[in-house]
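Repro:
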Amino acid sequence: MSLRQSISLSLAAGLIAVSATVPFASTAQAESPNPAPSPTKGMGSHNSHGSGRLEAQHSLRAPVTNENFYFVMADRFANGDAANDTGGIPGGVNDHGFDPTNKGFYNGGDLAGLLDKIDYIQGLGTTAIWLTPSFKNKAVQLEDGPSAGYHGYWITDFTQIDPHLGTNAELKKLVDAAHDRGMKVYFDIITNHTADVIGYQEGARTAYVGKDAIGGAYTTASGKAFDDRDYAGTNTFPTLDPLTSFPYTPVLDPGEENLKVPAWLNDTTLYHNRGNTTFTGEDSAYGDFFGLDDLFTENPKVVNGMIDIYQTWISQMGIDGFRIDTMKHVDDAFWQKFGPKVLAYAKAHGKTQFFMFGEVYDLSRPLTSSFTTRDKMQAVLDFPFQDAARNFASKSQATSGLKTLFEADDWYTDADSNVYQQPTFLGNHDMGRIGSFVTADNNSAGEAELVSRDRLAHELMYFSRGNPVIYYGDEQGFTGTGGDQLARQTLFASKVPEYLDDNLLGTDSTHAVDNYNPDSTMYRTISELSALTKQHPALRNGAQQHRYSSSEAGIYAFSRIDQGQQREYVVALNNSESAKTAAVPTYVPNGAFQRIYGSGSDQLTTDASSKLQVGVPALSAVVYESVASIPQSAKAPGIRLGHPAPSTETNSRMAVQAEVSGSSFNEVTFYAKVGHGRWTSIGTDDSRPYRVFHDTSAINDGTKISYRAVVRDNAGHTRLSNEQRASVPKPKLTIETPVADAGVFGTIQVLATADPEASSHVVRIQRQVDNGPWQTLATDGSSPVYGVFDDVRPIAVGSLIRYRAILSEPDGTRVVSSVRTVTRSAPQPLVPNVTVAGNVQSELGCPGDWDPACNVSDLTFDTSDGLWKGTWTVPAGEYEWKVAVNDSWDVNYGAGGAAGGGNIPLSVPAGGAQVTFVWDQITHIPSATIG
């Protein structure tokens, strides 16, 4: 029998369609029923096969796919020991950091309080307590407000619990108590940075200096320039000199030379020393986070040091897993070493279910999934889920948004991980709470609607794939008016003014009293959801199959399949403000389904086409369980592998999709053979569309890869697909800046990126003016971004300027980017006005100092060179200044052009002098010239 099939690789940015006649019986090899093995999570372990039989495997379920996390900030949960409130530090608030009336300081919570209230935590159905970073912090950073290290992200001692929270011994008591109750304890850890201890000789919190900037390259102690990426992932690294090797010269204040523990952290050459990040491009991985000392994670001393630190916490304290901060801002090679070594160590010490997941604050699935595929880590926090959940439950957007979200789950599928182990969440300590979102998104709604939307978001999180995370306080209906400090309320009675006027959803309580009420609306909701998913494990780790969505608010439905019992659960959620009904497809024809959650008919029956007519009340959810099992397949379904092709989102992932005949529960295992090598499993998918995105970034371009797939039906029958072949594409080279068709003037930065990136790449940046010859501006071998600064001032206004990049590889491969065209324009101001602000203003004619709105000290834009300038006669004296933009401190630039940076000193000699103040709106650097 021949069946016409249109095989579509559904990609976020487009559609690759392959239409082919698929004679299933003749192009796929049928095999007899054979139970497949259930692979377990193991870093880097893959099933390999020579010319033998390719096995059908079950979709992976790692040891951690059914955890219920409780994410808690210890300082804000419970004060069990007032004696440690100041951390044993003498002095005032700006010394010890304790101020229960200030949201930016320690409020008094500690480990003793957590231990006292551990039954409250367990009552939610919690299986794992996730603590914010608990190591010893720099108590107060005066540069940041001032504010205190209550949150745990300003670490000075990685071997000791912060004394404001307690002691190492108290942590061990908490861990033991949790283990006695069948709960785990997870640590929030940091590898990217330490507290702000290092300063720069050139100024405090200075602007970032790129690797391609003049003076931006790293140099060895002997003065030779090098690219650190050439050494990342190796066991060697050049010797560096703190005085000459970095764009900025690192310095330590007296008394802080040995502040950090372990001692190796006091070596200033083990930090990037490039200035503050802007969280874009290259500086996202190399820059300081608001002055925090950014570790040189490409250096093996740092890699091995961090591995040793966190292995020690596993062996000495019995920690069960790590949430890893700022994973996105650390190089890939670090994770490829760190993850496997820490996991292997944990397993060797009896932690067979040890689990690590990272913070990758991004919505791009190709990016977020790269950490669990290419970088060998186990999981990442599911930020795309959080975004989609808010859009669904809080904003009542089209339910097709959830279909799009879950269809992209295939990005996470490889041989040793998949989306089922991702922690999912609704809000956190950075972005804000789900209660805050539903309040802000529905500001005219009544309390009942807000609670319903809050509950709906939690229902979606608990019934869909992944490990749900409850952010402490959400179970008491906490809201807040924003993120960061505004989302870090105390569960104990608060004295913080900004918290005291918050509304709490589903309760009459306020923040003026303790809030540990197990009878509050959201506490009971979460407890009920936890209990139900424990009773029905398929709702936690069963296969998830999309069933129904629409282009408007209403019902979104999906199934969870119990692979062993072949029971189907239908979950239907309604984000409309009115009741809705939908015909939901299932795998069970003419079968009964029993309601186990929500309001509606106790029992429903599917029709002959297996559709279930489901009604769902407004802003709520229902769950139905099939009474009988899914009918067993009589024989293996047909399977046809489409033509693999690079995904449109990234050139480093090959989209491989299989079309399977029939309509029942199947699992499809994909295999790849690189060149003449062995067949290797690249992942198993258990929901349509059946596909994987094979990571080919480490394979030489031009290499031939063969692909096959094996389908396993719900009766154990298997069938092998046809074989398809594809070639690894050349890297894709893209000019990132300047923006296409923009007008440019002054000195501009031309940047290019390669996908995939490799440290061996060498890139030439070329320029063409009008129809003249192409000229090479620079050759750059420093990844991950290749660039040059181009002074276009000599070019006539109105000229067309074209840029292109040419990539060369050691094997002779040459790739040319598309051309980026811009126009030479006259300089234009990018902001309305710029003011010299400081204690020099009164000398310039302002009524007072440090006034960003005094127009007397405004600079004037110079259209000849694009700089803001102003010249005044200034009396002799010592001054400090910076520039303020738009008559406000909201945007200001200090030393080195850093946003909100340090004051700039100005020394005017005896007799006074003419001083010209200048601000470069492109680099943001202020300067002053005397005379």
